[in-house]
Amino acid sequence: VVGMCMRRQIARAVCLELSKGKTLSHDRMRNPCMGRLTSCLVKNLEKGKLVMRSESFSSRHVLQALPKLPVPNLKDTLDRYLRCMKHLLTEEQFNKTQNIVMQFGAPGGVGELLQSKLTERSENVANWVYDYWLNDMYLNNRLALPVNSSPAMVFPQQNFMAPIDSLRFAAHLISGALEYKTHLDDRDLPVDYARGQLAGTRLCMEQYYRLFTSYRLPGPERDTLVAQESSVMPEPEHIIVACKNQFFVLDVMINFRQLNQRDLLTQLEKIVKMADNEEEQLPPIGLLTSDGRTEWAESRSVLMRESTNRDSLDMIERCLCLVCLDDASGPELSDTKRAMLMLHGGGLTKNGGNRWYDKPMQFIVGADGCCGVVCEHSAFEGIVLVQCTEYLLKCMIGSPSKLVRAASVSELPAPRRLRWKCTPEIHKLITSAADKLQRMVKNLDINVHKFHDYGKGFIKKQKMSPDAYIQLALQLGFYRCHGRPVSTYESASLRRFQQGRVDNIRSATPEAFAFVKAMTERKNSTKMMELLKGAITAQTSYTRLAITGMAIDNHLLGLREIAHEMKMGKLEMFKDEAYLISNQFILSTSQVPTTVEMFCCYGPVVPNGYGACYNPQSDHIIFSVSSFHESEQTCSAEFVKCLVQGLRDVRDLCNKCNADCAATEERKGQTQKPKKEVYLLLTNRS
Ligand code: COA
């Protein structure tokens, strides 16, 4: 009677308990019908008949094998900080900052005290910056999740000929997600290894295990990233399907059997029918999750007063993921339009209410073929999301396109609609959230551009790091658009370390500034090439520093937070205007490469800034640039124009210098040639 999946779940629960050094007895297994099987498993495990594969604990082993994130040297960080900021400040600002930094770092001063506390902390926890970083980057941020925080992956446009095609797509997607989840549960996901700079190092896999098990709970001052702990007897799993702003519980395990693609299609069809029933329509409660975090925390506590709402919230918070079956959004579905729709759903009039932003993964399947995934970012980085999504899309390529619904329709209980009791107060809160989302929809200025002139193949041929090169092009594009350099963020993975997330590559280096100025002033090509090479070297060295845990942002954050914990008040060092400027990332960039046709996009992190995500391929580069219409300083289309021109100019510079080099070589060759001829003549005569 017991299906493979349930057996696997029990085995997992048993292994988990045994790995914690606990002894198991029958009565700890709450489900009586499983008792015999469980005891049999335990006995076999004890007798050693059943071998626990080492992969069962691979993440634990990997965690132990990986080094801890180092604490950089204080003086190095302070020197680098001044170097990073000098050209971004006025002379007066810089002189003030230099004094503050000197005092902070003086022998026997505050800096050394904080450094010693930070070193102590690093000895006692797996990753000294993890909590500080998570709070600072995400959980303390009060801004609404759509656009401001949650990135999206946009899938290739799907060509659905009939409504059932989109449901087939969704069924394949869910089935792939369940398969992927099984790999995670069995801990048999292949371990990632670093590519590119310092390739070959093993990477921390922890973020993967949060894909289906975490939830970002809103709080009045700070959110909480809740991780579902595996219970001894895990409950049957479910996903939430959103359709026409209604939420449905789709059990993926029925009668101890995991639903297959045909079953899933059957259940999705039932959901669509139920959602169409206008008499049963409930308010678009999901809009509340698109509100500011403090506002959503308040609305949630109002919702929680009713037991019906508590039950519904509980089902959403414990689901594996969401699948949002979206209505068609309009005729023209360019890359830019699809990116927009992924980021905010198009507001209440489109699919903005068909979302639940707290859940890490929301797969969007639009009736018009606009598909992708929106992710709550606090649990994992885009790279992990890409790996998972690529797995699903690759699974789907091999799936039958003519999936038919299951014959045994009647045997499957219908999915359940989640109920909400909405007081007038809640209706008002929904209206307010809808208005704010609508403002966001109007405000987002996004431009997705596929740059087809060349890709990383050309850059590699120049013997330059493609990432460093693209960062320089972004600096050049920005400088040409705005005539000044600004604090720039580029995410650098720290997954070489235990619990590693990211640090910042400060791409606006002094060398980059010198290069972009020379390019704009059209200096001679030899000089510009020399500056380009210097800027590439500086960017590549910073990248290496960052991925080996030696960058400055996390370190300064650690020192600031330790001072806060020690109740030292706000130190001059962190009150200083330069520190504030250093953290205003007007240019927020990230490389998110894919091996399947899709791209990532996200919003700016400051009101007058740009979000710039890029996906370098061998012969083209996809850029997704965002900003806000409300800022008079920014314009995504203009920035893309300058960026494209910058990329062309740098290529032309490389080509010109290569041609000049080749010509010089040829000239050298020619001046040597006559000698050869003379020699030949001489030898012939002799
Ligand atoms: N000459 C020729 N080839 C070079 C080169 C050179 N001088 N320098 C690098 N290359 C090659 C690399 O070997 C690599 O080859 P591959 O395509 O065969 O793997 C390729 O160019 C890319 O290397 P590079 O451009 O230097 O970048 P990278 O892949 O090392 O990436 C970061 C740099 C910072 C983006 C990466 O380390 C990182 O941290 N990524 C994570 C970013 C992230 O977290 N994003 C999501 C945030 S939500």
Q: Main traits of this protein?
A:
686 residues; alpha+beta; eight-stranded mixed beta sheet; six-stranded mixed beta sheet; 22 helices; 47% helix; binds coenzyme A
Name the shape in a single word. globular
> Which residues sit in consecutive blocks of at least 5 with pLDDT less than 50?
1-5, 18-63, 677-686
In the sheet with the most strands, the strands line up as: 11-5-4-8-9-10-1-16
> Strand pairing plus helix content: what structural class?
alpha+beta
Distance between the termini: 100 Å
Report the biggest beta sheet as strand number plus sense, adding barrel if it closes: 8 strands, mixed
Structural account:
The chain is α+β, with helices and mostly antiparallel strands and 686 residues long. The protein has helices at residues 4-19, 35-47, 58-65, 74-85, 91-104, 110-124, 130-139, 163-185, 261-276, 293-303, 307-317, 335-344, 382-397, 424-443, 456-461, 466-482, 510-520, 525-547, 553-565, 572-575, 577-582, 636-685; strands spanning 152-154, 214-217, 224-227, 238-243, 246-251, 253-254, 257-258, 322-326, 361-366, 371-375, 416-417, 444-451, 488-493, 502-505, 587-591, 599-601, 610-616, 621-628. The strands form 4 sheets. The chain has an 8-stranded mixed β-sheet with strand order 11-5-4-8-9-10-1-16, sandwiched between helices. It has a 6-stranded mixed β-sheet with strand order 12-18-17-15-13-14. It has a two-stranded antiparallel ribbon with strand order 2-3. A hairpin with an 8-residue loop joins strand 13 (488-493) and strand 14. Helix 16 packs across helix 17 (510-520) and helix 18 packs across helix 22 (636-685). The protein is globular. It binds coenzyme A.
